[in-house]
Amino acid sequence: MASEMCVLIVDDFSIMRGIIRRMLLKEFGTNNIFEAEDGITAWQILSSEKIDLVLCDWNMPNMTGLDLLEKVRSHKDFSKVPFIMITAEGKKENVIEATKKGVSGYIIKPFTAKDLRKKLSPIFQTGE
Amino acid sequence: MNLKYIEPFIAATIHVLETMAFTQATAGDAYLKDDQTAMGDVSGIIGMTGKESSGTLSVSFTKNSILAIVSNMFGDEITELNNEIKDAVGEITNMISGQARQKLEEMGKSLDAAIPTVITGINHSIKHITTYPIIAVPFSTDNGDFTIEICLEEEGVSLRRKIGRETP
Q1: Which residues of A touch B74 (CB under 8 A)?
Q2: Is A74 on the interface with B (CB under 8 A)?
Q3: What architecture (CATH level 2) is domain A2-120?
């Protein structure tokens, strides 16, 4: 059930984390949300909580979203967790690079609630 | 700098603010900027690098304009220039840069971006990373003005001859 899914939002800008959080609550009733400001903090949360979905920015200090994706996909416990990039990095080569590393989907900033709903609905419906 | 490289930044600015902040921004005439003093009270600056050129983009908001923009983004009224505002300026700058760079890539100019920095304060300075001409584009919204500045390296003809305008 969508409202029971546990989501990890990773973005170095708190305002963006807040916007995504509100959209998730409004669109899917999701309130079980963790936030991280970089890849290192995100990895700590992944290691201690049962996360069903990761929404991650690309350009962040300490560990980029792409590095976090690579780390997640190489760990047996998290390799299947849906991992969506929500990022301003929309160049074709970036999308290709993220796809090669196993990203589940891509949302380019700026985005609307409708964009988020369209991309995340399949995940919230199936839980995969 | 070839003026065709300015248009993606103008289009990106309008699109970002309309999508994330439900704000209509109208671009004024571009002009050459001769000094480093920011036009607004809070500015985001982001460096961009590529194989053939480097540059910077800055977005400088007046207090009134950014308070209204961020209040729209957040859905709550924000009345002072606090850390949330600084965060938002950084993210807006980041998004404008990202959108513009997608278009620039289609035009044959591939650039990567750094993480933006944010500066506040009356008469703060914006230091662009190259000594090439700075193109400023003023914008107006219902709640105040802001200005974007683009400084991109490019070899070739003098920009003053192309733009035909001086700093107002």
Answers
A1: 15, 18-19
A2: no
A3: 3-Layer(aba) Sandwich (3.40)
